[in-house]
Every structure is written in structure tokens, then in C-alpha cells.
Amino acid sequence: MSPVTHFFTGWVLAATVPSLNVRDRALITTAAVLPDIDGLGIVPELFTRHSTHPLPWFSLYHHHLHNLSFALLVTLISIGLARQKWITGCLVFVSFHLHLVEDVLGARGPDGYPWPIPYLRPFSSAVEFTWSGQWALNAWPNFAITLVLIAVTLYLAWSTGRSPLEFISARANVAFVAALRSRFPRVANPEPPEPM
Fold first, then answer.
1. Is residue 189 part of a domain?
2. SS3 111
3. pLDDT per residue over 161-180, tens digit each?
């Protein structure tokens, strides 16, 4: 799935725990996107594809960080940085693994190759997760999942007062939530009907 989908997955997971602070929510959200850092190899691959010395870094190394070792490293670093260490660490670990599940479901490339998840790499290649029904990266289920996550994000922003904009600016977050609440005002509880 796309980094946008992974981002909203992580943010929704983090936003469902009201006691977390902004930094802890950012760690959980980042963990949902971080496995794709190995996808940055696409930049040198694109720039060198017609050269005499192409660098196939994306083709060779994408999904190499989609493994348990990297998940544990990200979790340990997050525990060190978090205020609520253990709950954040657990949610970082879950968030990272939601990324892996999403990729198993819908990350097939245009060439039809179902990207496997080399879960025990670099220590073993014995366990690789893949699914023969994996849908293409640009298939409608990925768009549908992303739209649902955006809708949930908007609802959580409206109801809790927190949106992903809190990572950029508290003022932008407040303005965004205020705009949502003015567009969709809270409905007061209707009066119960009079007994007959």
C-alpha cells in the first residue's frame, strides 16, 4: 500500500489512545511508514536506469527492512524516546506490523510480482510472507482503505480535537479542528419524548 495509507493507519492507531502525547503519537505514526525507507532506492534507480552503471537499489532492496529485526530496532528506539514507554513501544510494534499486513494484502507491482515480506531477514530467509491474491498497488481496495482511514481521521479530529496537523503546528491543528466543527456542528441530545 502507499505511504499515505500507512501514515493514516499509524495515526488512527495512535489517536485511539487518548492518554498519549503528541510525541508518542508521532512515534507510532512514524513506525507505520518507516519500513518503506528502503523504498528510497527508487530515486537513484530512476536517475541511473539509462546509464552504463544503473543502480537497481529499489528493485533489489525494497522490502529488505520489512522484517522482525527492524521492527524490534524501531520499537526499542521508540521506547527510549517515548514518554509513556511501554504502551508506546507496544503500539509502535503493532503499527510496524500493520504496515507489513497492508503490504501483504495490496502491494503487487505493475509487473505482477507479489512483494514478499522477508520476516526473519537478515538472519534467515526461511520465512517469507506473501499472498497469491495480493492486489495491485493501484487497485481499488487500496483506495477504499485509504478513504476509510481518512474518514476515520476526520472523525477523530472532530471528536477529540487532534489531527495529524498536530505534528506540524498546534495552531494549524486547532484551526483545522475548528473548521471541521463549524462545518459539522455537534448535535445536541434531543429531548426525550413526553410519556403518554
1. no
2. coil
3. 999 999 999 999 999 999 99
